[in-house]
Automatic annotation (TrEMBL):
UniProt-listed Gene3D superfamilies: Ubiquitin Conjugating Enzyme
InterPro entries tied to this protein: RWD_dom, UBQ-conjugating_enzyme/RWD
Organism: Glossina brevipalpis
The protein, known as: RWD domain-containing protein
Annotated ranges, domain RWD: 6-108
Length: 359
């Protein structure tokens, strides 16, 4: 018997016993095909092995296939398998390579989101420190720290076993941004992740919930956190046109009754509370309420944000926001606003008359 025949017989007898979670699909001198999975179909890898003419003095030829793992990841893994095979030149190589494959997939559960992690590294830029994107393979977690100036936002994303059918679980968020922005980042990122795996309540004509297919949620959710965090310190108050947040986070106003306290309205823009109050309390008072005076629409409006990155959102610098100003703490109809303005002016005239009389 040739060494190939001996190895084929060895694979048939031992593979499914010595390589956990493996299943032999084909085992001949022309092709050895084995499915390996980490207890979940989403991380299943099909290993195709062929024997070169000069085997075993030349390493086996490995091809990897997967419905969920990316081509880039599989190509890198092929190189690792070939290196493993080279360590066994002159001997049987199939079982060592198959064991290596099973152990690698078992020890690296984040392989399911390899492309998303690479995209995040690219978005962070070449100047980012290793601490800004940490991978925790044992807990299947990705920890992102977005930094801009002295501000930061940190979030831990847990990748579930049935990813991408289930979305990432975002936890342990930390920041030195204002509390209102922390709530926004947390809520919106979770909503983005949810929309990746749940069909919308309102479907387009001709579509049903069965037509919806879950998409990976890690990159979409963390990219939002990264972009929003980096944009906040550079945003200007539309009224006074000064930077909304102070350069030093220690100078943030935490008293929500102070004018310097930062508010975020539904159209996405940041206002100093004093500026927002002044703008809402002064005429004119349009019938349907005041519009945001910002010079352009916000790319992260609560109503306009979408998972495709707002390609359809016009952000021309020459087009004003024009969105009706709305905020939980500033819900005032036109009649009430006019009445308050009239009372304020009447009181002002009375004070002026008193001053004139005293003179």
């Amino acid at each position: 018997m040739s060494i190939i025949d001996i190895e084929i017989e060895e694979v048939r007898k031992l593979c499914e016993n010595v390589v956990p979670n493996s299943k032999i699909i084909a085992c001949t001198a022309g092709l050895v095909r084995v499915d390996i999975q980490r207890n979940q179909l989403n991380r299943q890898v099909t290993v195709c092995i062929r024997f070169p003419v000069t085997y075993p003095n030349q390493h086996i030829l490995v091809e990897l296939k997967s419905k969920t793992l990316s081509e880039k990841f599989l190509n890198r893994l092929v190189s690792l398998c070939e290196k493993k095979a080279q360590e066994h030149l002159g001997k049987t190589q199939c079982l060592p390579v198959l064991r290596f494959m099973q152990e690698y997939v078992q020890e690296n559960p984040l392989c399911i989101c390899f492309d998303e992690i690479q995209a995040l590294r690219k978005d962070l830029g070449s100047n980012a420190s290793p601490e800004q994107l940490k991978l925790k393979q044992k807990t299947s977690a990705v920890i992102l720290t977005a930094k801009i100036g002295a501000y930061f936002y940190r979030v831990k994303a847990i990748v579930p076993d049935d990813y991408p059918e289930k979305c990432v679980d975002l936890r342990q968020q930390e920041t030195n941004l204002p509390a209102i922005l922390l709530r926004y980042l947390n809520g919106q990122s979770r909503e983005i992740a949810r929309q990746c795996v749940e069909a919308p309540l309102r479907l387009t004509k001709g579509k049903t919930a069965r037509d919806f297919k879950p998409v990976p949620s890690l990159y979409k959710a963390l990219k939002f956190c990264l972009e929003a965090t980096c944009a906040f310190p550079n945003e200007h108050c539309p009224v006074c046109e000064l930077v909304a947040l102070p350069e030093n986070p220690n100078d943030l106003e935490i008293d929500d009754s102070k004018d310097a306290y930062v508010e975020r309205v539904y159209c996405g823009h940041l206002f100093h509370q004093g500026c927002l109050k002044l703008y809402l309390q002064e005429p004119p008072f349009p019938k349907y309420g005041k519009l945001c005076p910002a010079r352009q629409r916000h790319v992260r409006s609560d109503t306009a944000y979408n998972l495709q990155g707002n390609e359809n959102l016009n952000t021309s610098k020459n087009e004003e926001c024009g969105t009706r100003l709305a905020h939980d703490r500033w819900v005032t109809n036109t009649k009430i606003a006019e009445s308050r303005w009239a009372q304020k002016q009447a009181r002002r005239r009375e004070l002026e008359e008193v001053v004139d009389f005293l003179k």
